[in-house]
Each structure stands twice: as structure tokens, then as C-alpha cells.
Amino acid sequence: MSQEKTEAIVIRQAEFSESSRVVTLFSKDFGKLSVLAKGVKRLKGPFDAGIDLLSRCHVVFIRRSSGALGILTEARLAARFQPPGPDLMSLYGGYYLAELLNGLTEDDDPAPLVYELAVRSLDGLMSDVQDSLSVIVEFEIGILRLSGHLGDLTECTACGTSFLEPSGAHTDGSPAPGRLVHWVSQGGLLCPSCCRPEYRKRSMSAGSVAALRQLGRMDRQMSARVRLTKQQIRECHQFAVSAIAHVLGRRPKTLRYLDIG
Amino acid sequence: MSPDRPGSPDHPCGPSVSRLIEQFSRLPGIGRKSAERLTNHILNCPAGDALALADAIRTVREQVRRCSVCFTLTEDDVCRICRDPRRDRTSVCVVEQPRDVVALESSGAFQGVYHVLGGRIAPLEGIGPEDLTIDQLIRRVRQDGVRELVMATNPTVDGDGTALFITNLLQNDDVTITRLARGIASGSVLEFANREMLADALRGRREL
């Protein structure tokens, strides 16, 4: 047993007993981990009211070497998730973000860049100046990229033809002029000549593909400058959801609350 | 599991003892050891006491149901609070669970009536608005002339989200929607209040 200290986001809570919960944290230094928070529901205790969904806190926990559930011994709140105004989209975006963090990451696999992206996205959802839909799409593309599920968006996944100058030709099952195709099972793009009717695919505009490439670069300053149109948000989101559903083996359940189109 | 350990399938006292230990250990907060202690108590206490406990459990399961108005637990079709003519029916306090009604009633500070949602919207747990009594609440507000809804869901992300969801549904209705205040407790000392409590108290400050 060893005592560890880190910063973490609460991404899931499950009832354990009358006053205790099993809490799933996505931490900066240890990745995803589940710990038992004894007495977390009591007003007085070592958790400082920090253990609420999507709150960010400094935690101390005891790791069990046998792989058994660790014990959370202390938590100090760093930032509570408080969406601005009466719009529920930011709140539901937060739930979606937690579901993706839980589903697309592995236990005890440190991913500091994913943590940084998650903190930035939660801050974005709490901000009243940032568009929550853009924040959600940026997070989707970012976590796909960082978890290795985002293919190369500059060339055809099948034949390697460069897409930087889309030809726009089309035959049966291929995209219309000016549009490219997302090959869902491979997580990449297909050129018109490699496109087959039997493939599970989704058509995208060249503009949306360009936006995807920019978001996928994970350049914070560049991402801040990207202004997505409604169509780009919708198409990038559909692209991301296809890829996420393929990885998870199901559609994320919190998606029904997000009205992105 | 060793054969002489109470609760094992071949417990020396017989399968009925094993079954009781099993049933007790399913209760919240009761582990295997506590279940064994409770079973020993049942076996050693007067038979009348043990049977009275069994009868109380049977009766409560057979007679207690949801109030047809507010959905709290009651032995009648309509609960005592909803039947009370002294209660202000234009003021409805919305809570997650029947036990929240008990907690709020113990304060003696609320003279209106209640509405029990049966939980909170928790998308990560697959609990949506359709799993709660939100439709019934909206109907109640629109048909019964409710003037104020006091949102007393828990002060958590899920509780706040549920309150906000209901508020949005009623944004075009003539009803005042309030949220329970949060912050420092009466009689406490500012110096020892945590950061979050102080921030909540400052955000929810009111004019004197």
C-alpha cells in the first residue's frame, strides 16, 4: 500500500453504503482510478464537499498493490463545475465529457495531456463567452487524437492519396463533389476511388475536414482561433460520434441530452 | 467458506438460519458479521418479539404506498400533509426522495406541501426525466394554481441540473421558482467555514 497525492476530476460516483461511495477519478498523474470514499456523504469529513461530479480537487488516496479498490483519504476542492446561466447544454456537455473520459481511457494509465484537455474543456463549458458546442467538439476530437483513435486526416486510409487537394470525383457510393468520406471502422478518410458501397461511412464537406485537421493538431492557440460554422460543428461532431461509438461498441448514453444535430 | 461459519449453505443450525443471515446482509450498512449478530439476537430473543418484527416488515410492505398527489410514502391514498387543510397548497417544495420530506418537516419551517420526484436526472446513470414524476409536477403546477416552487433537490451537479431542467420547463408559466439557500450554517464561525461555503453564502446574500 502506498499513499499518493494528485489532482483529479470526479467523473463517476456509485453508491456503496449509506454514507460511502465508490468514486471514479480521472487524475493528472495516474489516469483513471476508482477509490472508495468512506463517509463522503457526511457534511463533516476529510473531503471538504469536494467530491461532486465534474469537480476538480486535490486528492490523497491509498493505492492497493493487489489491484483492489483504493481508499480516498482526503480531498480539497480546486474548482466546482458550475455551468453559466439557465442553458442546460453546458451541463450536459460536462456529463458527456465525463462519459468519454471514463469510456475512452484505461485504468492506471497516466494521460496528462488528456487531463489538461479535460480541465480546459470544463473551464470552457463554465465560461459564458465560449460556445459550448465548439468546446464539446474540440474535446471529442482531442480525446480521439490523444487516445490514438483519430486516423490520419491528410490522406486516404486505404491507398494513401493526399487529401490536401480534394479531387471531388465521384462514382457509386463515393462522395459528392467537394465532399470526403469518413470510413467509420478505420477512423480515417477515404478517397472517392477507394470508397465502396458496403463500407460504413459518412460524407463530410472539405471545410469540415479542414476544421477537423486543425482541431486534431491539438495546438491550443490554433484551436482558440478556429471558429466553426454550424455545419462544421454538426459534421465534426457526427464524425467524432461515429468514431467514439465504434471504439466504445455503443453510442454514448449522454448523447441524447445534447442537441447538436 | 468453512462449514461451521454461520451463513454458509451448510450452517450447523440449518438452512433457515443461513437464509436469515443472507437476508440481513442485504440491508444497507449491514455486513456479514452484523447480519450474524442480528440473527443470533433473533434466535435468542422472545419468540413474540421476533414475530412482531416479521409482522411489522410484512405490514409496512403491504400497506405503505406512494401518495397519489405528492408521491411521498403513505398508508393512505393521500398523505397526511396533502390532506392537512392548514397547509398552503400554492407553495410546493420539490424534493428527490421521501426521506427529504421527513428532514424538511423536522425543521418545522415550511408550511406548504411537497412533491417527491423519486430521484434526480442523472444522465451518467441512465436516469432521465421520464423516470421521475416531473410530468405529474408540471400538471400539478398548471392545474392546482401553484404560485411558488421551492427546489429542494440536493446541492449537487445532478440536483442543480434537475432543478434547472424543471425551471426551463416552467419558464412560461406564472410560478415563482426558488432554490434552497446554501452557505454557512447559523451559529458557526466564519473563520472555520470552508471556501465553498463562504462563496455560496456570498453569492446567495440577501438584503436586510
Task: Please give a structural write-up.
With 261 residues, chain A is α+β, with helices and mostly antiparallel strands. Chain A has helices at residues 88-104, 112-126, 132-146, 206-216, 220-225, 230-248; strands spanning 2-15, 21-27, 31-37, 56-63, 70-79, 179-183, 188-190, 201-205. In chain A, strands 1-2-3-5-4 form a five-stranded mixed β-barrel. In chain A, strands 7-6-8 form a three-stranded antiparallel β-sheet. In chain A, a hairpin with a 5-residue loop joins strand 1 and strand 2 (21-27). In chain A, helix 4 (206-216) packs across helix 6 (230-248). The longest helix of chain A is centred in the C-terminal third of the chain and has 19 residues, at 230-248. With 208 residues, chain B is an alpha/beta fold. Chain B folds into two domains: 15-63, RecR Domain 1 (Helicase, Ruva Protein, domain 3), CATH 1.10.8.420; 82-207, 3-Layer(aba) Sandwich (Dna Topoisomerase Vi A Subunit, Chain: A, domain 2). In chain B, strands 4-3-5-6 form a four-stranded parallel β-sheet. In chain B, strands 1-2 form a two-stranded antiparallel sheet. The longest helix of chain B is centred in the N-terminal third of the chain and has 17 residues, at 47-63. The chains are: A alpha+beta (261), B alpha/beta (208). At the A-B interface, helix 1 of A face helix 7 and helix 8 of B.
Topology of helices and strands:
The complex is a heterodimer of chains A (261) and B (208).
Chain A: E1 2-15, E2 21-27, E3 31-37, E4 56-63, E5 70-79, H1 88-104, H2 112-126, H3 132-146, E6 179-183, E7 188-190, E8 201-205, H4 206-216, H5 220-225, H6 230-248
Parallel strand pairs in A: 3-5
Antiparallel strand pairs in A: 1-2, 1-4, 2-3, 4-5, 6-7, 6-8
Chain B: H1 15-25, H2 32-44, H3 47-63, E1 65-66, E2 73-74, H4 80-83, E3 88-95, H5 98-107, E4 112-116, H6 134-143, E5 148-151, H7 157-169, E6 176-179, H8 195-203
Parallel strand pairs in B: 3-4, 3-5, 5-6
Antiparallel strand pairs in B: 1-2
Helix pairs in contact in B: 1-2
